[in-house]
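Sequence decides. Consider this:

===
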Amino acid sequence: MSFVSTLLAPLLLLFPGGAADKAVREEPAAESLLIRPRIDVAREEGWNQVRIEQRMTIRITPHAAPMPSMLFDLPDREVGPRFIERKMGKCLAVSGIAGVQSGGGSRLILFMRDRRIVSANLERACRARDFYSGFYLARSEDGQLCVDRDALQSRNGANCRLTKFRQLIEVGG
């Protein structure tokens, strides 16, 4: 069956009359056996609609951890930066997420493309360590990841909702 007839076959189901039968008769006999039962069933059942659905899943991968420094380069103060949390909105642009790391407990750390770091709290029964290899999420119409609306699915099957976003701001030590 040609590419064009493959695309047009569902549309022919919408038109009453002989247009669909004519299209089937013009195809070679072996291929018409595949289409004819669908057209006959559609007419007997009285179907008048064709539904084409599309589902998109987005994968967010883990963010690479920074390389540890050599022991003789360690300063005499605390190791690593300190962060404070600030309130932020309830939604993030999915396209802005560059990577994720487990933050311990029920917290994920999201690294944004604009260099922001966001803490995402999961619902109480979820563990962040289940998301060590990233997560999947279904694309929403608005392209946002929102608290109390969207669920994240880990690669091992855990399915968790988000409860809160907080922006992490680095403070001087």
User: Anything to note?
Assistant: DSSP finds three helices and ten strands in the chain. The radius of gyration is 26 Å. The first strand starts at residue 57 and ends at 60.
